[in-house]
Amino acid sequence: MSSKDILITGGASGIGLGIATHLGQLGHNIVIADINLEPAQQAAKTLTSQGINASAAALDVSNAEQVGALPDKIGHIDVLVNNAGIQHVARLEDFPAAKWQQLINVMLVGPALLTQVFLPEMKARNYGRIINVGSIHSLVASPFKSAYVSAKHGLLGFAKTLALEVSEHDITINTLCPSYVKTPLVEQQIAAQAKENNMSEEEVVRKIMLEPMPKKAFIDIQELAGCAEFLLSPAAKNICGQTLVLDGGWVAR
Ligand code: NAD
């Protein structure tokens, strides 16, 4: 496959960094866009030291002005990975309204804005691959994560709708939905979940994160990177508007 120009939001850490590294090692050109510029620059430097063509850009995906200015800043892209994400765990009565809005803006409005600004050129070139990072919580709920669960459910509706709007072009949009992956985002939420559920942190990991999965194991970042590679392959040319669930059988149960 010819090398593609790939933008990965939230690529300075966790799943985004794993996808950036894997796709870079396959010979693609990588732009890491993250609200935290310094770790994004550090990540791009590490990739560059491995011989990967990588750069970093400062971006808050929920800021329409910044998103609108991005094409002029980074140029053309073939592949957009909407990965940036945050979490807040609280029962609804205690959930600050501003936090609710922020989660929706980062994880639902952000992907829509980014797709909107890069879509015209993808259509003009008749090629584009859009990969959203959803979650098991795109499909099943979890108490005290109302904003996160709502945003991640919304991403599936967005992908399905856009699949219809790009049907005349060689453009696909799909959503990867992993259950739990050991990243800073998950490590940070364990304590909050323990508090809200009145459990120890060890119980949160065992009962909430692993027990619902028949395979009872965290998902490895490389599995997500492999799915992204597949979605860029010719075999996935007609996979559009779909949800790839990496959950060890959770939803099947
Ligand atoms: P992470 O915290 O390791 O990485 C998230 C990255 O997003 C960070 O680099 C952060 O700086 C960046 N970011 C946050 N807000 C941003 C904004 N407004 N604009 C641009 N960048 C921003 O988390 P992760 O676990 O790697 O999460 C990546 C994605 O995977 C998220 O969408 C998350 O919801 C999803 N996900 C994670 C898990 C898991 O178990 N870790 C499971 C399912 C889905």
TrEMBL record:
Known Pfam families for this protein?
adh_short
The record's annotation in InterPro entries points to: 3-OHbutyrate_DH (IPR011294), NAD(P)-bd_dom_sf (IPR036291), Sc_DH/Rdtase_CS (IPR020904), SDR (IPR050259), SDR_fam (IPR002347)
- MF term (GO), any: 3-hydroxybutyrate dehydrogenase activity
On the tree of life, the source organism's domain of life is Bacteria
Q: Which GO terms describe its biological process?
A: monocarboxylic acid metabolic process
UniProt cross-references to SUPFAM superfamilies, sorted A to Z: NAD(P)-binding Rossmann-fold domains
NCBIfam families assigned: PHB_DH (TIGR01963), PRK12429.1 (NF009093)
Q: Which PANTHER family match?
A: 3-OXOACYL-(ACYL-CARRIER-PROTEIN) REDUCTASE (PTHR42879), 3-OXOACYL-[ACYL-CARRIER-PROTEIN] REDUCTASE FABG (PTHR42879:SF2)
Instruction: Please give the name of this protein.
Output: 3-hydroxybutyrate dehydrogenase
- Biological source species: Lacimicrobium alkaliphilum
